[in-house]
Structure formats: structure tokens, C-alpha cells
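Sync notes, pocket subgroup
Present: LS, DG
LS reminded everyone that the earlier model was apo-only. Rerun requested with beta-D-glucopyranose included. Inputs:
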Amino acid sequence: MKGIHIFLTAVALLAVSCIGKQGELIPYKDPSLKVERRVADLMKRMTLEEKIGQMNQCVGLNHIDESQAGMTEEDLMRNTAQAFYPGFLKEDIAQLAREGKIGSFLHVVTIGEANELQQLAMESRLRIPLLIGIDAVHGCGLVSGTTVYPTSIGMASTFDPELVYISSRQTAHEMRAIGMHWTFAPNVEVARDQRWGRVGETFGEDPYLVSLMGARAVQGFQGDEGLEKDLVLACAKHFAGGSQPINGTNGAPTDLSERTIREVFFPPFQACIDVGATTVMMAHNELNGIPCHANDWLMQDILREEMGFKGFIVSDWMDMEHIYDLHRTAVSVEDAYAQSVNAGMDMHMHGPAFVPAMLKLVEDGVVPVSRINRACSKILEMKFRLGLFEDPFFDESVVHETLLKEEHVQTALEAARKSIVLIENNGILPLTDGGRYQHVFVTGPNADSQGIMGDWTFPQPKENVVTFLQGLKEVAPNTRFTFLDQGESIRYMNSSRVKLAGEMARKADLNILFVGEYVNRKDWNNKTSGEDVERGNLRLAGLQEELVKNVLDSGKPCIVVLNNGHPLAVEWIAQRADALVEAWEPGMKGGTALAEILYGYVNPSAKLPVTFPRSTGNILSVYNHMPSHYFHPIVMENPMPLYEFGYGLSYTTYAYDNLKTEGFKKGVLHVSVDVTNTGSVAGEEIVLLFMRDDYASMTRPVKELKAFTRVALEPGQTKTVNLQVDKQQLAFWGHDGKWIVEPGTFTVMVDTLFTTAELK
Ligand code: BGC
């Protein structure tokens, strides 16, 4: 290992030497010069082909090997997680890197491979380092041995943007320790269809919450004031509208009014750009008839001109090609590449075909060379800013000092504790270890599985993860737990085990069931949720409902824990179980956090960042709907949500009083409210302030979140909470296609209290 390091250091020194063979100074290699100067110098030295090479990304060499062994060429069209390049061996891809025809790699998931790839780039003519990207969405969980935090939907449930910031910063450190420079996160889409398999990857349904969380994630990844050298590029994705697809399926068309796009979907991207997001990824879907990847209105007019985006845009997986082979608004792959780059795309994800095709398109005058220059110089700028020209390698001998650091694991645990939502509790919780329920029967597909890690992770070493069952045993050593394994794969549950569960439940004092979804990326074809896997309805999949029924029919007390990334229609379970807990996908320490909550060592504080509809037919079901949304009834069904955004219980109770406002002063509304812990245990309450524009020239939502905070309260303690709303937060997209803030009265709502504020 040491020998390799000395060798790589020597190569790095060669890379940084700013003296050429003839003894001349090479400005782009001189770290004392300004980035703009270095970019300009390097651009002058590059051929057109090399510039296009910088715009091109490929999957890692080990990934190619693994995919080639396990998939056919037909699989390539649909698969968005694995790839190889027909006609190209991995040696050919390595050769392209040596020739400077690849600027970036993704899906490099083995520690060490990043260095091997950089080594190839150091053999190229200009020794331009590679940018290595990965989906580090909630920790760098695609790499074994890293810290895995709760998925974004859980992080949103904490209503604690600081936790998002801290975990993103820690993730950035872990990424750099293993040679990764660019995370394809945060996903700041606003989740508007609960069937969509990627809801768990988002911060939920509220544009304001998503904006705050997304912006803090960007700052955590990149740095507080823009990109810092030792951190990583963030990528606000996917632009735009893919989280409200027709049928709820990933990548399906999105048809939305400009008002909805601007009011709901754009604000989180603006928030990320305002704090310096360096990259944006376009969305798979077509938006109102135009594939996002060929949409110059989105890329040029909105992102660059209106929002002031200064970084580079990356395509999503094979979506430039899909302009031709899926959307059919291009007549060939070459036409698709031309449309996309001309519309503003800067980097192609992924594959070797792009470079020769783009070279010809430029030579033929179809794509102006100015587009190539702009794209390439932006990509180079980021490489310089990250310090890659000085040292593209990472030090394998010190990786262990950064991965899974104690403070990272503690953050993962704290986040899990704050993200688990107590939904129903008839008083059975919290449990007492060694108390009334001596013998606890545990079952369900997610009881002892890495399903707690959520999507965008690969299985982690067992010793790094605390499953729910392990957590229970750890936290309640004086209780006897009996476990019946139902297997992890929800699609293939065994009916005799489901039946047996009912029998075993009768013999226990208490039953705890772990149900939900299956998102194992290594078992892609059997997943029930996650990327590219949608549900046609929101009921528990497979034999899980039968399992819950069998256990409930035992007549013994029962706690149901949900482990999933999107809301489920669980009304009947909520009515029959003694307690219902939404654990989301709480990450590597999820088992500990859940058990601490069940046994009362931690008081749950999380609230839902997304609405739970009562049935699939109630989609679109969001809390910030328009006034007429529920005007007429639905036959023989209650159309109202089962649990609305912002709902969540605690082991204590809170009373709100004294909601006050003195109106807008200098454009800011100051609101105060007294919150008292009226129960017998300490807790942290999330205080949510909603507003409604009472009468306006366009219809306005019945309520919208405008401010929130967390407040810690001892039993009996009262605190006055002060919240502020800037009048710009009340703007909406008016009749004449402009943002307007209309004077008038606004209802201010906190808990069940409300008051009025007037904007003159
Ligand atoms: C996903 C992106 C992701 C990319 C690379 C795509 O299928 O939509 O979100 O960043 O793959 O893994």
C-alpha cells in the first residue's frame, strides 16, 4: 500500500509541475494563478476532441465488468443502475481515459478504483484529472464501509436543516477520503405522487421545507460560501417536474401549468442556486411535451438567466439518447445530442459514443463551438476549484481515519432518533424493558434486514448496521424476543410462514411487526419501491397485509412499524394496532433509534413531511391544495387524508397559547406563540407556522408552511417562540406571468390557533 502511495505521489508531483519540457512555464499547472487564468490557458492548449472529452462521462471499469457479466444488451435500454458498452471492452474505456476522451466517471464503488482511473488520466496528453461522481444521497452508501444516514424523507421529518447540513458535510469528507468529488444530490424535487418510488429520496411535499433542506445540503456538501477545495460538488436534481409523473411512474410525462411549475417545483432549485450549487441534473421526463434534456427554456432561460445558475448541467442516465429512442423528438442519436447540447447541456451521462458524434456535429456546424467551450471551461473550472490538478489521488492508507468516524455515526443515530414518526399510540408506548411485556414476538420482512438503509445504498458490512431486531435486543436486554424470519423479499413471501406468525403471536405478550417496502439495489428486479419501481396502489405489498391480519387476530397487543420511503394507505392497520410508527428508512443506526423510541429512552419528535392519503384514488393528496379540492364528496369514501403533512405524536403533550402578531414591519411579519409542555416527559416540539392568503386575484392554497422551528421543553415548561415571515414568501405567479405580492389579509395558523395579519 505504502509503495503505491509513493508512486502515486510521484505521479501527482509530475502532474503539478508547472514547468514544461522546454523549461517554459505552464500557467494552467500553476496553483498560484487564478482559476479563470488557468482555465483560459488550458482551453487554449486543448483540441476540440479533448474539450468534448471533458463533457463526457462513463461508468467505472469494475462496474462495466460486473454489468457485462449480469445483463444483456436489451436490458441496457431500461436499466438505469447498471451499464456496459457493447463493442467496448473495459480496456477500451481505459484507453479512452488515457487519450483524454473522458472527463468524468460515475459508479466507481470500490475503494482504490478512483486512484486507478486518475492514474489513466495522468497518462493523457494534458494530464487533466477526472471528476468522479457518485449518488451520495444520504451518506456515500454505494461504497462499502461508509456512514449511512436516514434517507431524505426521514431527514425532512426532523424539520432540522442543521442535521442535513452536518450529515452532508460528513458525507463530503467521506467522499473525498475515497477519491470522489461530486455527489448527485440533493434531490430537491417536491414529492406530489405517493406512488412514485423515489419519494423517499426527497424532502417531501412542501416547497419551503424542500428549499431549506436542499440549500443546507448544498452548503454541507460544497461549503458555506460556495465551493471549498476539500469538499465536493453538489447537484440539485432533477430539473424539472419528475416528481408528479403521469401514473406516478419514474420518467413518465409531466404535464403542469407554468404556475404550478414555478410555485411548487422551481423554488427549491432557486434556493440551491442561491447558495452556489455548482451542478444541476436534468430530469428524465418530458415537461409539457418537451423532453427536459432538450429544453432550452429550462436550461437557458430559467436556470441560467432567471435563476442565475453559474455551474454546469449534467444529463441524467442515457437521457440525451432517450430524446431519440424514447421521446422521439429527435430523429437520431446524433440529432438528440445536438438538441441537448444546443439547449444548454454540458455533460453527457454516459458512454463513449458521445465524443465522436459531437465532434462531427461541431465540425458540420450543427453545434456551435461556443457551446463546447462554455461547457468544457465550466467543467475545468470545477476541477481547478477542487484542487484536483494539484493532487488527483487519495491516500488509501488514511481512508479508515475518515470513513465511519465516531462523530459521523453519532450524527446518523441522532438523525434517526429525530426522524421516526409516532403515528398512533393508544398508550401502549413507551414500553418498559423487563416490564409487563416479558416475551415479545418479532416478525415481518423488514425486521432483521438492511432495508433500514433505504435506496442508494449497497449492503454494508453487517457489523456496521443495527437492524430493528438487533436494536430491540440491544436496548431491551431484559426482554425475551422471539423472531420469525419472513425473508426480505416481499414479492416472494412464504404463506406458511405468514400463517405461522399468527400462531406464534398468540404465545407472546406483545407482537412487533416490521412491514413496508423492499429497496435492495443489489436485488433490483425484486424491489417493491425505490428508483424506477412504483406501486400501483399504496397498500402493503405481497402477503404483508395477511401477515398483519394474522398477528392482529391473535388478540395480543401489537405494534406495527413501517419501513418504507413513501406514504402507505394503512388506515385499517392504524385502527386496529395498538401503535403505529413510521420509521422511514432510518439508516445504519435505525435499529437502535427505533428501539430507544419504543422503550421510551428517546421521546419521538418527528412530523410527517408528506401527506398520507386514505387510498390510492385520493392522489393528488397534498396539504397545500386549493380551496375547491375537497368541495364535493367521493362516493362511500372519505377523501380527506389519513395523516396530513406536519402530523406526528410524542410521549408528552403540548399546549399552544397567545398567538400574536403586530403585522408587517419593513416587509417582515413577526409572529410569537407560547408553547407549553403539558405532559410528564421532556420533549422537542416542532412548531409549524402556516399562512393563507384570504382573498386573492388567483386561487391560493388553503395553507402553506412559511416558518418552523424546533423547541426543547421540560415538563411544565413554557417558551415563547418567535417566527418571522418575509412578505416575499407570500408572492405567487400572477395572471400576467409575473410574481406578485398582493396586499390584503392573511390568516396565520400555528397548531389550532389562528390570527390575521394585514399586508398594506
Ligand atoms: C438517476 C439519477 C442518478 C443517476 C446516476 C439515474 O438513473 O435518475 O438520479 O444520479 O442515475 O446514478
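DG: The chain has a mean pLDDT of 96.
LS: The chain has three domains: 2-401, 420-630, 654-759.
Action: DG to write up.
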